[in-house]
Design brief:
Layout lengths: L1 H59 L4 H77 L4 H6 L4 H87 L15 H31 L48 E4 L5 E3 L4 E9 L3 E9 L2 E11 L6 E2 L4 E5 L9 E8 L2 E3 L6
Antiparallel strand pairs: 1-8, 2-7, 3-4, 3-6, 4-5, 5-7, 5-8, 8-9
Helix pairs in contact: 1-2, 1-4, 2-4
Amino acid sequence: MRSKRLTKTLALVMTLAMLLSTAFAFDAYGTTRQELENKKEKIQQEIDAAEKKVNELAAEKKETQEYVEALDAKIQLKQDEIDVLQASVDAIQAEIDQLDSDIADKEARIEENQKQIDAKQAEFDETFEEYCQRLRAMYVSGSASNIEVLLTCPDISSILTRSQMIKSVSEQDSAVLDALMTKMSEIEAAKAQLEADRIQLQEDKATRESDKAELVTERDKIEAAKAELKSEVDEANELIRKLGAQQSEYLESISDNKAEQQEIESEIQAIIRENERKKQQQQQQSSSSSSSSSSSSRDTTPSSETAGSGNWIYPTSYHTVSGGYPNYSSGRYHGALDFPCPVGTSVYAVDSGTVVYAGWHYSYGNYVLIDHGNGLSSIVAHNSSLAVSAGQHVTQGQVVAYSGSTGNSTGPHVHLEARVNGQRVNPYNYL
């Protein structure tokens, strides 16, 4: 009775420990998930406010700059919502993956523990059966008492010998009985732990199924948000085209494709890094060579005669800025200055330097990247045509392109960027 009570107590303690440890484990997931839920709730409130403003403006008159700005603000919030939803999906998937691993481990542990229990049970049954057979044999044979056995001894020597044998048999029986009790306690404890593991396994499987259902819901939300985003982006860009005759700051189309935005940025960063690598390589070669003939070879490194002064001129004779740095008035990131002008207007090198790149990208259209030395470079984009090529040294005010509306653009203008070590900075620092 005492053994059973101890076994039940131990099983209860271990079960509670398992449940508590699991509760803490899921709380770790819950913290991140809760933060994401809070973000989604906040973004939804902002989207509702933006939606209200868009609807109010739509009721008055759609085709206005203010309406486009309100729509653009909503687009940015919708993109934020998609990002948070994706983060939520990733967190749920990570939790499912962890549960898959935990379930596999528990199933393997349960299977192994069951084998051990079966082995212990078989060993117990065998020992117990042998013990029971001995007791039955003693009962059937009507074994004499210890006194009778001793009294039938012919001499004192036999008495001592038989007494020792009786003691040994008694001690052996006691040891077998103790071993059986110990084995029984071990089996009961193992069974209790096995049952606790099975209960936890079922709870984990139920949680996993719940997470999978939530994952499907979140993914559906992402697809719905993307569809709504695309619809609003298309509407905004159509309005931008209609407003193109006016000097709207939205001369570059709104894009809901972050990968596209990152692609051109990565391309420019790679071009600048490669140019810096070539410059360092040439400097090393120049320092190790005693001949000055290498300085006449063609390269993309600004010479002392062509390096810029750091004081820029405007890239066009049109100085009105339609899109400023770093953001448009709606808050959407721009990172450049836009100068509206007719197609074919001369585009000038803002400072002396070396053309690092002159070519096409579907987002920037025809663009020119010029290295002015000391880590400073400029970009003029969306040109109708180019007047220079990579490796060419240019002087300040030299025509490098002709303005246009190529790439991701809805109206002719010059897009000017300033970069220091590849990172965008305010062009006004140098104009």
